[in-house]
């Protein structure tokens, strides 16, 4: 017998019928999802801005890029980023075009711009997926990650998200709940160890 | 500190004695475990119905293990459909061989790794090095202990036994100039700089897995630093090694798992990055690994199903039981001689790696029950520790004096008449050894300790004679 069958055969000797409990229903009820999202993400040193339109989100994005004096910016090919006005002094890499150069660009980029598929209010979490025009490294290698997220993408928590999720998984799905951090040296929190030092979410109506 | 891959009675006693005398280590252990305990308490207090959620999770884990072959096959089928390659490893050596084969086929010289207890369990780094492949640990804590040449001392905080001074010393050696121990941001920045080049140069990324979701064939990794994402995104090949017990039936169950994992481990509502990987990059994607290999590791686990020890497989490696354990908090992780320390380590280490080699571990507990209280799956660790002690008696693994003493105690305690007789005998026999501060017997009961002497009249006699003031 091959290892697979041997392991399974051993396990089958102890196999018995025990049914799973029905899915846990979320016991959370936040009066305002965006407020909870902001509170949770800010508590772990993430940054949250709320604006009332996509155009305002674009303005704010460019203001932030100027503030950090960004010279190289990688932009995922996602709908909320399509009409982002480009700043003259910045070199952009549009994901989905010349992807052979993507990795090197991300490694030296000052910021990565993405949207998100969904967001969890309870934990201040943003859900990113991989796919055509959507780079994993764009939200990972640059020191600043800015995510433009429609307020409508907010759901209460992991349980409400799972209940409505269609089970069509991309190769890579990330729940991001703050800037990269570590507490491995004397439990002292340090931000930006391998991933972004700043994680900025712009919620727009 | 020497780190034997065993913990016999004398080894454990020796390592624990050394650890207890090490003031730096004691300070580091107290600081870290207290911080973890407080974080967990706060996080679970904030979560509505946290105890009911733990009960729910217990049911999920028990039902999953009862049907493990079904969920493993489903996981294999769905992961394969998504393009991942699934491998089965009966032993640690089998898993190592699978990794080495893939590495050879791809001509890999440099491997980046994210924190994985399974790879510690199978001594993967040693095997990679012996085959001319350089493994670089990228979790900051793991990197610290890799530089120090030590095994991890805590399931989630591998370097909690190190002070910032020791870390600064190790990093200074690595960068070739002195770094300040008081600038933790600076130390972290050096790690980022040095490891960034390795991430991008590595031909292979190796990770563990916090759970595998059968429903979709998805591997889930939970990290804070982002190294788990880098290891699984940057190199062309990703290998994950995951224990066969870490299977979760579906996303609903996974939500419960994830709601409890980070809260129990570090006190975070959610870790910074929870990464769900379903196969390699798809043809239209701009980045990600071309190959994803999932190694399902048995290494003794399947033999525990259907035994009184099956419950130990419900563990999700959050480390909560370590932080509350009075023995772990003093002896530290290295005394256990195993990557798995603390109460859960004291149970699974002898079960997976041999009761004789790790005979001290079931004894390394006060049976206070704090571990069971802290466990997100409410695993009854004290029950299994007691069961293992019975196994040790049956296998004659205890020192003969202890065995004889226990047999004698069982004989005496077995009848009221014998109890009375021996108590009387003891009161008479203790006279030559009685001192003001208790009994000083010619055999040692621990440094500087004395046994209380037998009272002139036992409690039950005082009670019966109505001599007790019961106000």
How would you describe this structure to a colleague?
The complex is a heterodimer of chains A (205) and B (471). Chain A is of the alpha/beta class and 205 residues long. Chain A has one domain: NagB/RpiA/CoA transferase-like (Rossmann fold), CATH 3.40.50.10420. Chain A has helices at 3-13, 33-43, 54-67, 102-108, 158-164; strands at residues 47-51, 72-75, 91-94, 111-114, 118-120, 125-129, 144-150, 154-155, 172-176, 181-182, 190-191, 198-204. In chain A, the strands form three sheets. A six-stranded parallel sheet of chain A has the order 1-12-7-4-2-3, with helices on both faces. In chain B, β11 (434-435) and β12 form a beta hairpin. The longest helix of chain B is centred in the first third of the chain and has 24 residues, at 23-46. The mean pLDDT of chain B is 93. The chains are: A alpha/beta (205), B alpha/beta (471). Chains A and B meet through α1, α4, α5, β9 and β10 of A and α2, α3, α4, α8 and α10 of B. β9 of chain A pairs antiparallel with β9 (273-277) of chain B, so a sheet runs across the interface.
Helices, strands, pairings?
The complex is a heterodimer of chains A (205) and B (471).
Chain A: H1 3-13, H2 33-43, E1 47-51, H3 54-67, E2 72-75, E3 91-94, H4 102-108, E4 111-114, E5 118-120, E6 125-129, E7 144-150, E8 154-155, H5 158-164, E9 172-176, E10 181-182, E11 190-191, E12 198-204
Chain B: H1 9-21, H2 23-46, H3 50-66, H4 68-81, E1 85-89, H5 92-105, E2 110-113, H6 117-121, H7 124-130, E3 134-137, H8 140-148, H9 164-175, H10 184-201, E4 204-207, E5 211-213, E6 218-223, H11 227-233, E7 237-243, E8 247-248, H12 251-265, E9 273-277, E10 291-297, H13 320-324, H14 326-331, H15 342-353, H16 370-374, H17 381-394, H18 400-413, H19 416-429, E11 434-435, E12 438-439, H20 459-464
Parallel strand pairs in B: 1-10, 2-3, 2-4, 4-7, 5-8, 7-10
Antiparallel strand pairs in B: 5-6, 6-9, 11-12
